[in-house]
Amino acid sequence: ESTSASPELLDHLATFCIQRGIHLGSFRRVISGGAPVLPRLLAKLERVFPRAEIISAYGSTEAEPIAYVSKQEMSEPDISRMLAGKGLLVGKPIPEIRLRILRDRWGDALGPYTQSKFEQEFLPPLEVGEVVVSGDHVCREYLGGQGDRENKIRVEEAVWHRTGDAGWLDDEGRLWLVGRCAARIQDERGTMYPFSVEVPLSVQDDVVRSAVVSFRGRRLLVLEFRGPLRKGNIRSLLPSIPNAVLDELLVLNRIPVDTRHRAKVDYPALVKQLQIGKPRLRMQL
Questions:
Q1: Contacts of 259 (CB under 8 A, 6+ apart)
Q2: What is the pLDDT of residue 229?
Q3: Calpha distance 272→256 (Å, rounded)
Q4: Strand pairing partners for 121?
C-alpha cells in the first residue's frame, strides 16, 4: 500500500495515530508535498508508518515534480544542518528537469537571454539564490500570457520557469530551500530568508507555526504557540535560532496560511494582520 497527501493532512493523521498507539505497518511508501515537509513531520511519519519509505516531494503547479528525497536518505548531518537554519533539504532534481540557481532578483523581469549569457547568471554550489527550472513537463506559458513576463525566462528556444523559491545546491547536487523569494528580508543588517528560523523552530513542541517578516522596518518573529504564554517559555526557544538577528517577537492566535494546502505561511496576509491585530504577547529581542 502507498499514499500521497499534503503535509497538513498527514500531520493530522500521524498525530491521531500516535495518540492512540496506532501503527500502519502495511504501507510501503508515503509521499508528501505541495508545502514544506518539515523534519518534525518526517519523524512522526516514520513512527506511524514503520515499514514505509517516507518521501518528501518538491514541485509546483507549473513543474511537478522538481525534486524529491527519502527520509531514509537523510543523514544526521543533514538533519543537523536543517536545524541549524541552513534550509530545508528537498533532494536531487529529477533527471527529466534542468534546475539552476540565479541571483535573487524576484520582482524584476529577466531575459530574454542567449544561452551563453544565461549561463553566466548561474550561481555555483553553496550560494543562495532564486530557483529556476526547465523541462518538457514544465509549463512554458500561462493562459493569455498573463504572468509570463514576471515568471518565465526565454533563453533562445527554451523557456525557464521561475519557481519563486530561494535555495542552494550542495556539493552532491541536492537542493535546499530557504523560503520564498518574496519573503526575503533585506536591510542594512544583511539578508535573511524565513526558513533559517522557521525550520529550526518547527521541531519545538509548543510551536504550532512560526514566521519571520519585516514590518515597519523591524524584523519580527511571529509565533502561533500552544503552550502557556510565559516569557520564560518563549525565551527558551531562542537558543534554537542563535544566529537569527531579530528585533521583536509576537505571539498571535493564528498565523494565516494558504487556502489550498493550509500549510504555507501567507506572508502578505500576515502583514495585513499585523497592521490591524493585537498580539497575545509582545517581547523585545
A1: none
A2: 85
A3: 10
A4: none
* Locus of grid cell 537542493: 175
Distance between CA atoms of 221 and 192, rounded to whole angstroms?
12
Question: Alpha-carbon distance 243 to 220, whole Å?
Answer: 14
Question: Residue 161, Cβ neighbours under 10 Å: how many?
Answer: 22
Enumerate the β-bridge partners of residue 212: 221
User: What dihedral do alpha carbons 65, 66, 70, 73 form, nearest 10°?
Assistant: 160
What three-state secondary structure class fits 180? strand
Handedness of CA 158, 164, 167, 173 (dihedral sign): negative
Q: Could you read off the pLDDT of 67-123 as tens digits, one per residue?
A: 999 999 999 999 999 999 999 999 999 999 999 999 999 999 999 999 999 999 999
Q: Mutual orientation of helices 76-83 and 39-48 as an angle, nearest 10°?
A: 140
Residue 36, preceding peptide bond in cis (omega within 30° of 0):
no
Dihedrals phi, psi of 4, to nearest 5 degrees: -135, 130
Start-end of H helices in the chain: 7-19, 39-48, 76-83, 115-119, 148-151, 195-201, 231-235, 267-276
d(CA 282, CA 285): 10
